[in-house]
Amino acid sequence: MGLTVLNVDIANVARPEVTRSIEFLIDSGAIYSVVPASILKELGVQPVKTEDFRLADGSTISRRKGVALFRYKDRVGGADVIFGEPGDSELLGAFTLEALGLALDPLRRELHPLPMILAGWRSESGSAER
Questions:
Q1: Which helix H or strand E contains 43, and what residues bound it?
Q2: How many angstroms separate the CA atoms of 46 and 120, rounded?
Q3: What span, in angstroms and rounded, lies between the C-alpha atoms of 85 and 107?
Q4: How many Å apart are CA 121 and CA 130, to the nearest integer?
Q5: Which residue, of 26, 89, 103, 129, is most buried by count of CB atoms within 10 Å of its CB?
Q6: Which of 116, 112, 109 minimizes the C-alpha distance to 26?
């Protein structure tokens, strides 16, 4: 099975015009995206909490987490981001893919647009219902 990489721009949600382009490994098995802490600091992205993560070998690590803006072509979305430390890979996780309206076909290793669905619907009278 091959690896899928993608160049994505990342920014601080408070300053979306200042971006950095990063080549990410798409990891649909990862929930969060991982970006080097030095880049997040440069962009002014602030950590909001520290989370513990279990690695494949069973060990546990702690990483800071914040929120960043991601841009790929004409798609823009905000998602949680992990402050990567030396040795961590730049990963694009499932939350970011969904925020961009994309899904990874794991067999073909291709990106496909997600259908954009709202939870509400219109009644016969035309008003929104839940």
A1: helix 37-43
A2: 34
A3: 30
A4: 7
A5: 26
A6: 109
Query: What is this structure's pTM?
Result: 0.85
Q: Range of 108's domain? A: 5-129
Write the pLDDT tens digit of every residue in 7-16.
999 999 999 9
DSSP structural state of residue 95: H
Residues in the chain: 130
DSSP for residue 96 = H
Please give the tally of structural domains in the chain.
1
Place of tokens 């990874």: 104
The CATH number of the domain holding residue 122 is: 2.40.70.10
Token duo for residue 85: 């430390």
Residue 10 token pair: 């990342």
pLDDT digits (tens, 9 = 90+) for 84-108: 999 999 999 999 999 999 988 877 8
